[in-house]
């Protein structure tokens, strides 16, 4: 009994060490973001509000090729107001902390894998390496999709939409910050869906037939998720729904491959 208690406490101590290193990595990456906060705010944070943003340049280049005119033309100014005394400081801290988490995310995943891997068999360890790399790759891919594909069109709709010329735009800093992280981090989290499907299929809870049977229900759920991640405009919601639908179809194929591999391993063990 004492050996089990010591073994359990040893695992707790080891987990604490991994968590402490993860926290240190987040703080270190957050400091990197914080020391470069001026450049990050000007060029990355407010990048999607400018006409020279890569997404707008590509869209306008294609539009000029087919129609001769630009499809998107944002105003030169993006007036942002600050209503609270510590609003800029709070935004700086939010950008530094969340930016630090994004930068440190591959290392965090690696630390968690180091904690779990000693308990795995050699074949499971080999498969888990693919899974662990897929986690941070899918997360960062979702962030890139949110930043370069969805956020620019959401901002474009919000800036160009007018109900009266009398109304002069003046945007709130906290509102823009919430929209930025809602779309970018939301897409990063949703892109982890294939990893969840793989895990549930591996432990026998989910089957590819279940995903195929409830595909129509999943499409409705995807539209709801796209509506939650994006603002109220239909264009942004549809743009967000397309990669999520492709991700769902990819997850069906992944579940089918995983399920077939498990069935073959089960038959081999029985033989």
From TrEMBL:
GO process terms (BP): intracellular protein transmembrane transport; protein transport by the Tat complex
Record's keyword annotation contains Isomerase: no
Please list every transmembrane segment annotated in the UniProt record, as residue ranges: 20-41, 89-110, 130-159, 179-206, 218-248
**What does the UniProt keyword field contain?**
Cell membrane, Membrane, Protein transport, Translocation, Transmembrane, Transmembrane helix, Transport
Family matches, as InterPro entries: TatC (IPR002033)
Keyword Transmembrane assigned to the entry: answer is yes
A GO CC annotation given for this chain? TAT protein transport complex
Out of the domains of life, which is the source?
Bacteria
Task: Quote any Pfam family the record assigns.
Answer: TatC
Instruction: Quote the subcellular location field of this record.
Output: Cell membrane; Membrane
Tell me the membrane topology, using the record's own terms.
Multi-pass membrane protein
An annotated Gene Ontology molecular function: proton motive force dependent protein transmembrane transporter activity
The annotated subunit structure for this chain is: Forms a complex with TatA.
Task: State what this protein does.
Answer: Part of the twin-arginine translocation (Tat) system that transports large folded proteins containing a characteristic twin-arginine motif in their signal peptide across membranes.
The family annotation for this protein states: Belongs to the TatC family.
Protein name (database record): Sec-independent protein translocase protein TatC
Q: Which gene encodes it?
A: tatC
């Amino acid at each position: 009994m004492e050996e089990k208690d010591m073994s359990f406490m040893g695992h707790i101590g080891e987990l604490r060490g991994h968590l402490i290193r993860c926290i240190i990595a987040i703080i270190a990456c957050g400091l990197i973001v914080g020391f470069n906060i001026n450049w990050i705010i000007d060029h990355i944070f407010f990048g999607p509000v400018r006409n020279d943003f890569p997404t707008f340049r590509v869209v306008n280049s294609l539009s000029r090729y087919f129609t001769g005119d630009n499809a998107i033309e944002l105003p030169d100014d993006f007036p942002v107001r600050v209503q609270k005394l510590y609003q800029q400081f709070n935004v700086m801290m939010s950008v530094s902390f969340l930016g630090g988490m994004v930068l440190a995310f591959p290392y965090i995943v690696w630390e968690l894998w180091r904690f779990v891997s000693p308990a795995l068999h050699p074949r499971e360890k080999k498969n888990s390496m693919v899974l662990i790399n897929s986690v941070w790759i899918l997360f960062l891919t979702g962030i890139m999709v949110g930043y370069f594909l969805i956020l620019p069109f959401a901002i474009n709709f919000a800036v160009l939409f007018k109900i009266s010329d009398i109304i002069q735009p003046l945007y709130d800093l906290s509102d823009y910050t919430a929209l930025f992280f809602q779309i970018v981090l939301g897409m990063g989290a949703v892109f982890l869906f294939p990893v969840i499907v793989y895990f549930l299929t591996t432990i026998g809870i989910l089957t590819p037939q279940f995903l195929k049977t409830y595909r129509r229900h999943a499409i409705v759920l995807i539209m709801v998720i796209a509506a939650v991640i994006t603002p109220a405009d239909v264009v942004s919601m549809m743009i967000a729904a397309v990669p999520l639908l492709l991700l769902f179809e990819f997850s069906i194929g992944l579940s089918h491959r995983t399920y077939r591999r498990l069935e073959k391993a089960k038959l081999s063990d029985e033989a």
